[in-house]
Design brief:
Ferric Hydroxamate Uptake Protein, Chain A, domain 1, three-stranded antiparallel sheet, 10 strands, about 110 residues, 1 helix, mainly beta
Amino acid sequence: MDNGHANLAQHIHPNLKISIDGIPKEIPANIGILANCMAEIHTHDTTGKIHIETREAGKQFTLKTFFSVWGESIEKDGYGIEMSVDGLKSGELDNLILRDDQQIILEYTKK
């Protein structure tokens, strides 16, 4: 049975957590998944686990790519944003290259 993972050169899972004014925001299931089509970057559930599955070895995806597939903007009007990656503050935001087992936290606070 082919579960869509045949011939993959890359299959990684960064993790994303978002909070707005200290309240966790659920990341929707099935971002990037349509009835008979699955984007290379997608979610299956609401855990914040991002799936990157591609047949192209070394292909890079950014956090901006994920937000674009989601149909959301990283920036939110009226809010400041802080990002940490694997426990360290980062200012990369849009340009952050997603990697396996990365722990990404976005914290939005009202200005």
